[in-house]
Amino acid sequence: MDSESGVFRLRWTPSPSPTSPLVPNAKADEGQLHANGTGFEDINDLESYRSSSRGSLERYFPFSRTGVTSVPAPRLQPSHSLPKEGAKIGHTSSSRDESYSARATSFEDGGGVFLTWKDLWVTAADKRKEGQRPILGGLTGYAQPGEVLAVMGPSGCGKSTLLDALAGRLGLNMGKTGEILVNGRNEVLAYGTSAYVTQDDELMKTLTVSEAVRYSAQLQLPSSMSISEKLERADLVIRQMGLQDSINTVIGGWGRKGISGGQKRRVSICIEILTRPPLLFLDEPTSGLDSAASYHVMSRIAKLAQKDKSTVIASIHQPSGEVFELFHNLCLLCSGRLLYFGPTPDACQFFAQNGFPCPNLRNPSDHYLRTINGDFEVDIEEGNQGEMSAEKAVNILVESYEVSGTYYQLQNRVLAICYQEGEALEKGSQASFITQSFILTRRSFVNMYRDLGYYWLRLAIYIALCLCVGTIFHHIGHSYGSIQARGSMLMFVATFLTFMAIGGFPSFVEDMKIFQRERLNGHYGVGAYVIGNTLSSIPYLIVISLIPGVIAYYLVGLQKGLDHFVYFALVLFACMMLVESLMMIVASIVPDFLMGIITGAGIQGVMMLNGGFFRLPNDLPRPFWRYPVYYISFHKYAIQGFYKNEFEGLTFPNNQIGGPETITGEEILRSVWEVEMGYSKWVDLAILFGMVVVYRLMFFGIIKALETLEPMIMNQKRQLVNV
Ligand SMILES: Nc1ncnc2c1ncn2[C@@H]1O[C@H](COP(=O)(O)OP(=O)(O)OP(=O)(O)O)[C@@H](O)[C@H]1O
Ligand SMILES: [Mg+2]
User: Which residues does the annotated region (Disordered) include (predicted)?
Assistant: First the structure.
C-alpha cells in the first residue's frame, strides 16, 4: 500500500522496451506497492537517477518501492562522424543505425574506460591432437563507459574465456592473439584497475555477510575516507544487493551451511562494487538468483555504471525479458564465434531477417539460445525432427552478421575508439599499508578463531598426543637408560609433533584462494597479506606450544626450572611457525591441497631424516646430505637446541666398564648426540626464528615473482605464436 495515498498499486507492469516502447499508462504510473519480502530496498545513493534525463520513462516502470529501476540504453551525443555506408548494406534500419552511433561516446566526454578487442583469438593446448584448440575465434568488440555489455551464448561457448582474456587472466596453458586496447592503448590491466566477479564465489566462509563486506571496505577504500564512511558504504552496497536481511548470517561453505548460493553471488558483487571500479567484469552475476532478484541486481549495476561512468561487461545465462533490456549491447557467441555484436534491441530484428523470428510471448534471449545451441539437438529417442540444425543456423547467422551494417558499425566504432589515445588507466587510491595489514590481521584472526580446522582441532590433537608422550615417558628419571629415552622424546616433539602443523593446510589453501581473488582485483598488497597472516597466527601458536608443551614437559619430568620450560616452548613455537611457513610456500606453488600436503610432507620427511637423529651428524654422507641439507634442515637446530636445554647441567651414572662413575650432560651431547657445542642453545633458537623470517620472505618473494613472471611468460608465448 502506498503510504501516502493509501491505495494499492501494481508493482509488476510490462517494462518499456527500446524495441516496443510502452505507452504511458496513467494507472500504473500512480504508484506501487512496497517491495516487501524481496529483500531489495530503496537506496539513497541512487536518488539522482530519478532526476536523470530518463526520469520520465522510469515513471512508467514501477518495479520497486521507488519505481526507479529500468535503465534503457542511454542516448549520448555522437562525437565521431561515423561513415554512413553502414546504413546502406546493413540489415538494420537507418533509425537503428542512428541509435547505435548516437550512443557513441568519446574520451573527451568525461573519462572512463574504453575497452576494445580486435580479431581476438584464444587457444588452449589440445593434448589429443598435440596442437592448439581454438576457444575464441577472431572476436571484435568494445565496451564503453556508462554501458553494460552482455556476453551471451550456450554453455561452453567461451564467455568466461572472453572475460578472462579481456581482464588479462588467461591461464598459462592458453594462447592469445589479437589486439586488446584500454583507452586506445596497448596496456596490461594492472592489479586494482579493474574488478572481476568470477564465476566461482571465493569468500571467507566463517564471516558474516556484513563482516565480509565491511572488512573489504576497510581494506579497499582510501585513507581519505573515515572509518564510519567506509562502513556506511559497505552497508549501502549490502542494501543495494538486497542482502539487508542476511547481514548477520554466516557465509558458510563445506561442512557448514550458511547463506544461499544466490546470496553468495551478491556478496561477491558487493565486494567488487565497493570502490565503484571504472571497469567491472561480471561472470554470471545472476546465477542462483530468482528473476526478481536478477532484475534488481542487474538494474542496480546498470545504474551504477551510468552514474559512475563505469564500463561493465557481464556474461549472463537466461536473462528475463526485463533483465535483457537493461543491457546496452549484446555480444552473442557460439563455439567461440561471434554471431552478433550490437545494440541489444536490434538482435531481434537481425534474427528475424535471417529467418529466425522470435515467436510471440517468447523471451528474445531464450529464442537466441534455442536457435544456436546445438548441444542437445539430436533427440535421443526420436531422432531429429527435420528441424534446421543449430550448426546450420549458426553458420547462416555468422555469415550474415559479417556482411551486416551492424558489423560495419562495430568495426567503425572500434576503429574510432582505437584511433584516439586516451589516458592510461590508473589504480585508484587505497587504504594505507598499515591499515591493510591491521585489517587483514584482524580478519584472519577472526577466521582462525571460528574455523575449527585451523587451530582448535590441532590443539585437541596436540593435547592428546602430549598426554601420550607424557604417559609413555612418565618420570623419565636420571638413569643411564634415560639418556636414550630423553633423546627420543625430544626428537619426537621437535619433528613429528611439529609436523602435524601440516593439518592446517586445507584451511590455508582456502585462504590462499581468497587472497588470489582479492589480489587480482588489487584489494591489497602481498606484504600486507604476509604480515596479516603471520601476526594473526602467533597467538594461536603460542597457545598450542604452551598447553600441550606444559603437559609433555612436566609429565615426562624434564629439567626443572622455568627458563628451561620457556626455552622448550619457544623452540616448539618456532618449529610450528616454520612448518606453517613452509606450507605457505608450498601453497603458493602447488595450489591443490592434496598435492600440497604430499609435497609438504615429503619435504619435511627429508629434513627430519637429515636432522641428526636417525643418522648421527658425523655419519651423514658429506656431499649433499651433510652439506648442505643437514644445515638447511630446521630440525637440526630444533633437536640440538632441545638437547642442550635438557642435558646441560645434568649428570648420569656411567655404566661403561672402566670409565668414570658419572657422565655429564655436556659429554653426552658431544659424544652420544654429536651436538655442535661451539655456541649456546640461544643461538639455535635465534637461527630458528631467523629461518621463520627467511621462509616468510621466501613466500612473499615467490608470490611477487609469480606475479611478474606469469605476464612475461604469456607475452613470450604470444610472441612465439605471432612468429
Ligand atoms: N584452460 C583450458 N584448457 C582447455 N580448454 C579450456 C580451458 N578453459 C576453457 N576451455 C574450454 O573452452 C570452452 C569455453 O569455456 P568457458 O569457460 O569460457 O565457457 P562458458 O561460455 O563460460 O561456459 P559456462 O556458461 O558453462 O560458464 C569450453 O569448451 C572449455 O572446455
Ligand atoms: Mg563461464
Answer: 1-47, 68-99
Is residue 156 within 6 Å of ligand 1 at its C-beta? Answer: yes
Query: Which pTM value belongs to this model?
Result: 0.84
Q: Are 308 and 280 in contact (CB under 8 A)?
A: no
pLDDT digits (tens, 9 = 90+) for 553-582: 999 999 999 999 999 999 999 999 999 999
Single out the residue in 226, 251, 276 at which a domain terminates. 276
Examine residue 400 and state whether it is found in any structural domain, yes or no. Answer: no
Q: What is the tens place of the pLDDT at every residue in 275-286?
A: 999 999 999 999
Interval 318-351: pLDDT, tens: 899 999 999 999 999 999 999 999 999 999 999 9
Residue closest by Cα to atom 17 of ligand 1: 160
**Domain finish residue from 255, 276, 297:** 276
Which pLDDT belongs to residue 381? 52
Q: Which of 160, 335, 337, 365 has the most ligand 1 atoms within 8 A of CB, as the residue to mutate?
A: 160
Q: Is the peptide bond before 285 cis (omega within 30 degrees of 0)?
A: no
From the list 39, 92, 101, 99, the residue with the least C-alpha distance to 64 is 39
Please report the atom of ligand 1 found closest to the CA of residue 153.
21
- 3-state SS string over 292-315? HHHHHHHHHHHHHHHHHCCEEEEE
Q: Per the domain annotation, does 161 fall within a domain?
A: no
Ligand 1 center–CA 156 separation, angstroms: 5
Q: Which three cell numbers stand for residue 652?
A: 648420569
